[in-house]
């Protein structure tokens, strides 16, 4: 750019000469000077490498941070969901197993007629909830739980108590608790 300014200025003045062209060449430097000054090449290369490694380090740091954060989130989510998932799996497994048995075998296992009917009701309720729906119910309960934890207990104590009773995760856990109580009452006969 500077060379073009010199050309424009000298052309506008009208005094173009070989001296001006030599000055112009001196501005850009001579190729022979590059070989004689290896320190400037090393400095440029050092600055380029430093910039490149700085950028690479920054990117790697961001990537590592994302991976660590994702792993931590997974660990927390796993701890939260494993308890509810295990209970839900037990309820589905037990009710499905009882549902597959012939009526005569169920009568032998669960002698109390009322308990047997309640187990069948739980089975129908559990079978009506698909895995996807159970996951949505659990996800909604986590979101509501996060919202309630962010509220102050004194200001919203009625909402928190109502949530604990009406909680969607309680829908999943209530089937487990009901089945557990029924099975403890009836004392299954396993031979």
TrEMBL record:
The entry's keywords: Cytoplasm, Nucleus
Record's signal peptide: none
A GO CC term attached to the entry: nucleus
Transmembrane segments: none
Domain (Essential protein Yae1 N-terminal): residue spans on this chain: 57-94
Region (Disordered): 1-41
Pfam families from the UniProt entry: Yae1_N (PF09811)
Annotated compartments: Cytoplasm; Nucleus
Principal cellular location given in the protein's record: cytoplasm
Polar residues bias spans: 1-18
Compositional bias annotation for Acidic residues: 19-37
Name of the protein in its database record: Essential protein Yae1 N-terminal domain-containing protein
Organism: Rhynchospora pubera
């Amino acid at each position: 750019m500077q060379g073009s300014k010199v050309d424009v200025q000298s052309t506008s003045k009208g005094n173009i000469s070989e001296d001006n062209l030599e000055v112009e060449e001196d501005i850009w430097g001579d190729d022979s000077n590059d070989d004689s000054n290896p320190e400037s090449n090393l400095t440029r290369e050092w600055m380029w490498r430093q910039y490149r490694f700085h950028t690479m380090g920054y990117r790697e740091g961001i990537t590592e941070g994302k991976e660590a954060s994702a792993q931590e989130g997974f660990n927390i989510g796993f701890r939260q969901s494993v308890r509810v998932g295990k209970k839900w799996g037990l309820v589905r497994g037990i009710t499905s197993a009882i549902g597959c048995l012939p009526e005569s075998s169920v009568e032998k296992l669960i002698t109390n007629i009322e308990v047997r009917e309640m187990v069948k009701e739980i089975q129908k309720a559990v079978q009506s909830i698909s895995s996807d729906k159970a996951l949505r119910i659990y996800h909604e309960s986590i979101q509501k739980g996060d919202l309630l934890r962010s509220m102050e207990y004194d200001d919203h104590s009625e909402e928190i108590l109502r949530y604990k009773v009406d909680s969607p995760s309680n829908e999943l856990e209530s089937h487990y608790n009901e089945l557990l109580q029924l099975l403890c009452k009836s004392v299954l006969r396993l031979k």
